[in-house]
Amino acid sequence: MKIVGASKVFVCDENFKILEDSGIAIKEGKIVAIDDYKKLIQKYNNATKIFYKDCVLLPSFVNPHIHFEFSNNLANFTYGNFGNWLDSVMQKRDEVLNDNTNAILQAIHEQILSGVGSVGAISSYGDDMHSLINSPLKVVFFNEVIGSNPSAIDFLYSNFLQRLKNSMQHASINFIPAIALHSPYSVHFILAKKVLSLAREKNLLTSVHFLESREERQWLESSQGYFKKFYEKTLQVKDPKSLYSIQEFIELFKNMDTLFVHCLEANVKELSQLMQSGHIITCPKSNRLLNNKLLNLDHVNMQKLSIATDGKSSNNNLNYLDELRTMLFSYPNKNCIDFAKEILLSATLYGARSLRLSNGSLQEGFFADFCIFEIPSLATSTQPALHFLLHAREIQALYRNGICMLETKSQKNSN
Ligand code: MCF
Ligand code: FE
Predict the structure, then answer these.
(1) How far apart are CA 250 and CA 215, in angstroms?
(2) N or C: less crowded end of the chain, CB within 10 Å?
(3) Which of 63, 87, 122, when mutated, tests ligand 1's pocket best, judged by the most ligand atoms within 8 Å of its CB?
(4) Active site residues
(5) Domain 61-354 maps to which CATH number in 3.40.50.880, 2.60.120.620, 3.20.20.140, 3.30.750.24?
């Protein structure tokens, strides 16, 4: 038994309850009690204990969409227009992906320092697998499938199956294999159906980039615009046509659990269909850079929304707190005090639900996946969620399944 306490505890339940001088009792990786720290140490008097003074203890963040393999990118890809970005990816992908091991390790570290404990990692090639398995993160590992050329389907499917198999061999409570379909403009429907039937059969979580750009919507609706040229010139396809309508693509995911990433161009009806088939993931900095736009939240149920960084392929860094602050500052029509709480819940409780993880909230029976930030000024705050979002910088400690995985400063206040 272990007890960990702090001056402030953000429970991250639906009401955003905050406790003072409280803590959690942990047994076999899970939370068994949450209460006043003094009461806990009396009740479990044989437990090892640690109290973090002037600190906030909260569930580690859940970043449900990140491409670690692209972590070498700084200025290789071009921003400001989705088509230009995709052209630059096609041109410079190889140099960005080359020799990426150190960049992946650095990216994992940056995630952790900003409080991320769980990720949804989109893996295009499997190059990030071992670094992730050996990291302090809890990982949902989305093996990506991509390819629209019908003559390459067999090869692409068997390559995907091999990666999925490799990942299955390492499955554990900290590493959960899953499936990502790249997008409706890049995956042939035969390939999509094969992969989705496997996901259904094995009850694997799925993720897909969907309605990210105006270019994508135009292609799905009329087979015109940027993607017509992309197919003709880059992929050398004659008289190309979209392989799905928007409705046909949504249909594919019926009765599944899917993370729909971006959805910037989805209309009200489509958003409601997507929220029924899973969760919406928004990546504010990526969306700003690639599409000059942010998700309109007017018709989005915040409980169905999670916030992600995307990869360095479309972001200046992988600091999750930076992403949350971007979110906070990007919606001036929202009351910043309430919105700060909603953002923190999306980053914890709702993010965990989108990845089907039993964490993201300090509740009995949940995994003890949490982190500690030292912020002395929060003691007198009357707006703790907002002030936390504004001033949190770097974790002091990160725990996974009740075990301290990283400490940035040695703790003098034990016992
Ligand atoms: O989410 C962003 C933008 N939308 C689509 N794809 C990617 C993003 N960041 C990286 N990607 C990757 C994707 O996983 O780009 C590659 C794929 O492997 C090539 S896209 C034809
Ligand atoms: Fe992405």
Answers:
(1) 18
(2) C
(3) 122
(4) 212
(5) 3.20.20.140
